[in-house]
Structures are given as structure tokens and as C-alpha cells.
From TrEMBL:
<dbReference type="GO" id="GO:0016989">
    <property type="term" value="F:sigma factor antagonist activity"/>
</dbReference>
<feature type="domain" description="FecR protein">
    <location>
        <begin position="111"/>
        <end position="199"/>
    </location>
</feature>
<dbReference type="Pfam" id="PF04773">
    <property type="entry name" value="FecR"/>
</dbReference>
<protein>
    <submittedName>
        <fullName>Putative iron transporter-like regulatory protein</fullName>
    </submittedName>
</protein>
<dbReference type="Pfam" id="PF16220">
    <property type="entry name" value="DUF4880"/>
</dbReference>
<dbReference type="InterPro" id="IPR006860">
    <property type="entry name" value="FecR"/>
</dbReference>
<dbReference type="InterPro" id="IPR012373">
    <property type="entry name" value="Ferrdict_sens_TM"/>
</dbReference>
<dbReference type="InterPro" id="IPR032623">
    <property type="entry name" value="FecR_N"/>
</dbReference>
<feature type="domain" description="FecR N-terminal">
    <location>
        <begin position="13"/>
        <end position="55"/>
    </location>
</feature>
Length: 314
């Protein structure tokens, strides 16, 4: 932890209160003297004040509910709490990792994230390569020999060059040197091994973990895992910007495609079970929808830009 950004939550609260008071108007001479006395009283106060100034300067560039609350409600308790939380997060305190693991901190404050419809590549400090799929977020903690990646939401593809652990809502994925795709669902984690092998186990599991070999995937829950099976053509294809279907139900295909689009993408039950095959570039979802009308007996109705329905062709 950087000594320049270590301070208690109590001092963080004090710094936030002073900042809010200053932003409501100029301090009078007595208030100015009190602030200076507080600032000079301890180096911890100075560290907190310098850090909150930096955090405050960055707020307007953050597309976060925390930033919104911190900027747009100058007299509210929500703004004070938002600033306090941002200050603590920015300090990189040890408590941050635990709070995020308990889902008490929004994924928007994650170390790395990718917006909806976009993908991102990250080179980690140990040489491993991490790719984030659409609407994904992770925290990364490298502390001595311990190397952790916490998947907060979405999907990642990791090319690990050293021993790493991926923590999800349901369990832990342990790998040495492997290529693994991990996707977080609401009630389970899907783990697919593209190269090498990994071990998976529920987070509070005391027995032997399950070893997943290359080209195998399994769903991990809080209580265990299902039977491993072969990966399919679409596993990890997103990392190359592709959506690959091999006799995939149209409803399932559109569910996948909707992950990369804003708004609603609906599938009429009459055409839900039509099968589709092919490789489609994820960066042009409108083109994919147009191609559906050529390859399948369907029509695409665009009520608005954000409300699209795929229906049976008349």
C-alpha cells in the first residue's frame, strides 16, 4: 500500500466534510483557521486532503452513479457518502478489496471495466494478458506471491503466464499457465478452458477441487459444479470480435447479440427455435440483423433504435 494514500475512514469523513463546506461557499476567517488547524494537526490529514482534491478533480470524468451523487447533490448525505467512498477507493486501502468481494461497491468503480458493446485488453504486471468482454468489470490484486483477479460482472479471457486465482460470485478458479474463459451469470459461473488446465471450487469448499482440462467447460455454483462438457465453437470467439453459431437457436443467438447492444432485442416465440449457423462480427450488430432476414424466414422490425423485434416473415 502506498504510504502517501493511507488514512483512516474517520479522517476520510473529516476531509469530505471540509470539502463540502468549501464548495458551498468561501470560508469565513474563523472557518479558514479551523480548517488550517485540522490540516496541520497530523500528516494523515494532509494525505487525505491532498488525495480528495485529486479525486474531486477526476469526478467529472467518471460515468458512475457515485460521481453523479458526488457532483449533483451538494447538500445531501448521499453526496457526502459518495465522496467518502470515492476517497477511500482512490486511496487503494486494504478494505476496498473486501468491500468489492462482498458486492458493496459498484462495479463502475472497478480497476478495469469495459462498457456495453466494447471489449478491452489489459496487460497485467506479471505478463499475463486479460481481455474483458462487453459490460465487464474486474479488480486485480497483486500482493507479493498472491495474484488475484476478482470478476465483478461480465466475462473475461485470461492468458495466464504465472499462478493466478480468479474469484467469482460462486467460486474460485486456480490456474498456472493456461488460457481460460470465465463468464459470470446471476446464479453460476461458466468456466471454459481453451489451453492448459485449471482447478475450480466453490468459495467455501473444503474438498478437492475439480480439474478442468483443455477444451472442457463446466458451470460452477456455490454448492458445486455440473458435469464437464466440450466447449463449443463460440467459446472465447468474442475475444476475436466474433459471434459464432453452430446450429444455435435463434432465441439464444439474439440473447448473445443483445449483450453488445443498447436497448431491447426481442425474439418472437414463433421463430425462437429456428436454427442459425455462421460467424458474425460483433462490431456491427445492425449488419447481423440484416443478414438474419436473408438467411432465415424472419423480418426485423425496428420500432426505435433501442427497440428491435425479430418476427416471422409474413
Amino acid at each position: 500500500m502506498n504510504a502517501a494514500t493511507t488514512f483512516s475512514t474517520q479522517v476520510a469523513e473529516q476531509a469530505v466534510q471540509w470539502l463540502m463546506q468549501m464548495q458551498q461557499g468561501p470560508l469565513n476567517p474563523r472557518q479558514q483557521a479551523n480548517w488550517q488547524h485540522w490540516l496541520d494537526a497530523h500528516s494523515e490529514h494532509q494525505r487525505a486532503w491532498e488525495h480528495i482534491q485529486r479525486v474531486n478533480q477526476r469526478l467529472r470524468g467518471m460515468p458512475s452513479p457515485l460521481a453523479h451523487a458526488a457532483l449533483n447533490a451538494p447538500k445531501s448525505s448521499s453526496r457526502r457518502q459518495a465522496l467518502k467512498l470515492l476517497l477511500i477507493l482512490g486511496a487503494g486501502s486494504a478494505a476496498t478489496w473486501g468491500l468489492r468481494q462482498q458486492h458493496l461497491i459498484p462495479p463502475l468503480t472497478a480497476d478495469y471495466r469495459s462498457p456495453l458493446g466494447q471489449r478491452r485488453k489489459v496487460q497485467l504486471a506479471d505478463g499475463s494478458q486479460l481481455q474483458l468482454n462487453t459490460a465487464s468489470a474486474v479488480d486485480v490484486q497483486f500482493d507479493g506471491p498472491q495474484r488475484l483477479i476478482h470478476l465483478l460482472e461480465g466475462e473475461i479471457l485470461l492468458r495466464a503466464s504465472t499462478a493466478l486465482q480468479i474469484i467469482t460470485a460462486q467460486g474460485i478458479v486456480t490456474t498456472q499457465a493456461a488460457q481460460v474463459n470465465v463468464r459470470q451469470f446471476s446464479d453460476h459461473t461458466q468456466v471454459a478452458v481453451l489451453d492448459g488446465q485449471v482447478e475450480i471450487a466453490p468459495r467455501s469448499y473444503s474438498g478437492l477441487p475439480l480439474t478442468l482440462e483443455k477444451s472442457r467447460l463446466a458451470n460452477l455454483t456455490r454448492k458445486g459444479w455440473d458435469t464437464p462438457r466440450l466447449t463449443d465453437a463460440n467459446t472465447g470467439a468474442w475475444a476475436d470480435g466474433m459471434l459464432v453459431a453452430s446450429h444455435m437457436r435463434l432465441a439464444d443467438f439474439l440473447d448473445e447479440l443483445s449483450r453488445y447492444r443498447h436497448g431491447q432485442l426481442q425474439c418472437d416465440p414463433q421463430v425462437a427455435n429456428l436454427l442459425i449457423s455462421g460467424s458474425y462480427p460483433l462490431d456491427d450488430s445492425e449488419r447481423i440483423l440484416d443478414l438474419l432476414q436473408i438467411s432465415l424466414p424472419v423480418k426485423v422490425r425496428r420500432f426505435t433504435r433501442y427497440w428491435v423485434s425479430v418476427q416471422a416473415r409474413a
